[in-house]
UniProtKB/TrEMBL annotation:
GO terms for biological process: lipopolysaccharide core region biosynthetic process. This is Heptosyltransferase. Keywords: Glycosyltransferase, Transferase. GO terms for molecular function: ADP-heptose-lipopolysaccharide heptosyltransferase activity. Gene3D superfamilies: Glycogen Phosphorylase B. The keyword Cell division does not apply. Pfam families: Glyco_transf_9 (PF01075). GO terms for cellular component: cytosol. InterPro entries: Glyco_trans_9 (IPR002201), LPS_LOS_Heptosyltrfase (IPR051199).
Amino acid sequence: MSKLFVRLPNHIGDACMSMPALDLLEASGFDLCLVGKPFVGELFEGTLRRFDPIEGNLLEDIRRIKELAASVKNPKGLLLPNSLGSALLFTAAGIKCTGYATDGRSILLEHAIPKPSRMHEVERFWNVAYKALEAWGVKPAYDKLPKRLNMKLAQRNEAGARNLISKISLPEKFAILAPIAKGRHEGKEKYWKHFNELVAPLKERGLTPVVFPAKDEIDAVKLAAPDAIIYEPTSLGNFAALCSRASIVIANDSGVSHIASAVHAPQITIVGVTDTDRTSPWSDLNMIVGKKGQWPEVNEVISAIDQVLSKTKS
């Protein structure tokens, strides 16, 4: 198999949404060497693909990636981010790269793929991978984009989740809440402010509401959902495995919502400021509540919980 260096997206949700594109590249005959932010690497550990982190020091990152690429004759790369910086990294490391013609980087690309019309991010990543295969003269292994993501959990994360569930005596039926969404979208906060009002209704339905916050979210979570059981942070891979065992995952439009979709968890995504046609979880087990410009009422979310739970029981 030919080696292909792939620059992963920078954010957890985007990295999850790139999974079908990566699967297509691998099925089409490439041995993937993934390059990206350190924290996204664990999402791909179960695939056994090589992963090399970039630490943010451009010269040091170039040196390391150049050493990696030196072992390959005529190294080839695909850029999933749109940034000029991702093209500079691969080009300086001696990797001929292909990607979308964005951010004024076309001159650095061996093949500049025209920027597509507005589409879902999963489709966008898939499109650049498919077009890149055609540009390289490689027949794509298949033509139809899967309707689900396909995160392969590492065995150590499966075991980590089992051990953690035993250690904290987590009940069999539990609901994972993710009340925090970092940053802003178009200047507006990205999180719904009524997660704590879901705790009692979830308990009434026989589910234990739990939160596994990121290390820098602990204080914010205690304010947002004080009545839920708040556990210590765990690794991203362990968290994904926990999501796969949850009765339901309830999150803002955030990285957690995409992790849940990647492991096929029943889920609810609460939105109020983001564009769901571009970033909604890629899953037939997901239900969106709210819309851009209008956060949902608590009773709407509770109704959605009942609908999702009834589908999983049938």
